[in-house]
Amino acid sequence: xxxxxxxxxxxxxxxxxxxxxxxxxxxxxxxxxxxxxxxxxxxxxxxxxxxxxxxxxxxxxxxxxxxxxxxxxxxxxxxxxxxxxxxxxxxxxxxxxxxxxxxxxxxxxxxxxxxxxxxxxxxxxxxxxxxxxxxxxxxxxxxxxxxxxxxxxxxxxxxxxxxxxxxxxxxxxxxxxxxxxxxxxxxxxxxxxxxxxxxxxxxxxxxxxxxxxxxxxxxxxxxxxxxxxxxxxxxxxxxxxxxxxxxx
Length: 248
Fold this sequence. Notes:
This protein is mainly α. It has one domain (12-215). Helices cover 78% and strands 4% of the residues. The protein contains 9 helices and 2 strands. A two-stranded antiparallel ribbon has the order 1-2. The chain is globular.
């Protein structure tokens, strides 16, 4: 209790909390886009529930990981050597997450380009859009992004209460933003393709990170922001053409 009171009266602790919240939200954007794309494929009645459940699981997973900091820090120790490169458990998790993102984004792009193509897998093909399948896929990516998020938090402060508070606030903000983001993506089909392109880029980045090639996150988010700006201008141009009756 004394530690909490001490932290509450420390301006440095508040600064660390604010910085961590911003970092957690930025690192969570990737996860939020993925959740929005997955839940938009569900029946309308279950979309909001799936988003809330997926993000709630992300919160629980991150708090559990925070409670096992020794284990998390240990994930950075080499456990496997291939072709002269040492892989830690973190590297293997990032590699698996990157490959999963590449597979999922490629599959979604294929389905978008061939919406009327018959499914060859029968009833199993519809499982990808089911509530349970969506939640499972969200959990898989939550694990990848949670490990990276917690390792970032550990590198910024050694105070567990600050890290836990930052995670709770960040996921709360993501829950608030998830509905409007999903609705925006659903109403603007071209945004879906842009978001899938982001997922491909993020997947490639995760794989590169797994092999030890550090790519500054600022470059990734700058590219995403620029692409989003260009698409925003395209949307504005289309809206004005429709208003003038000069095209779709």
